[in-house]
Amino acid sequence: MVAQSDIPNRPSPPRLVTDFTNTLNQREINALENTLVQFDNQTSNQIVVVIVKSLNGYSKAEFADLIGEKWDVGRKLEENGIVMLIKPKTRASKGEVHIAVANGLGGIIPDAIAKRIVEYEMIPSLKQNNYYSAIQKSTSVLMGLAKKEFSSNEYLKKRSSGNKGFGLFVPFLAILFFMLMSRGRGSKTMGGRRGSSGIWTALILGSMLGGGGRHSGGFSDFSGGGGGFGG
Length: 231
Known about the structure:
Elements: E1 17-19, H1 26-43, E2 46-51, H2 60-70, E3 81-87, E4 95-101, H3 111-127, H4 131-146, H5 152-161, H6 164-186, H7 197-210, E5 222-223, E6 226-227
Parallel strand pairs: 1-2, 2-3, 4-5, 4-6
Antiparallel strand pairs: 3-4
Helix pairs in contact: 1-4, 3-4, 6-7
């Protein structure tokens, strides 16, 4: 059974941005609050941002779902609430991020898309300790999806297009790499030693090839995901 005391109470008076950690300054809180209030008034969809010191033994998905239920995020009949949960990283623990989308919005913001929003919009900024930017970017995407300004497929297509240029460039670099290596083996300098220019160029190109795809592995400082809570 869930111990409701482990889940913080809804702020009174209610607000959409709650920071229990003093991670954000008041100007940042006010800016985010005004944006989310305006979105709520225009659409009736509600996004709540919660920054906590600890998950109190729960997984990030459980904690976010329980906040959504206990705080009655969104309209009950429409089930149109979103909870963005952040636990900042500390010296003793990694950061945790989760976006929980209620059932009423699950059709346009499925779990897979919520997870991608965390990965694409939040993690890079959070790794730089820029929490405000992470929240601002991700809520902007969530609002656009909720207002149907673009679909989840359009978002993914646009977001992934930024990596296509590098993806097309990699085969060219690989070919050039092997060409230079072959040329280096055939050239010699004074004293019969092989030329070093080809080797150095190859090393540089190799480092370039190894530097791509920063989202392909795990996140060392933050873990994120998407999920949903029942109305």
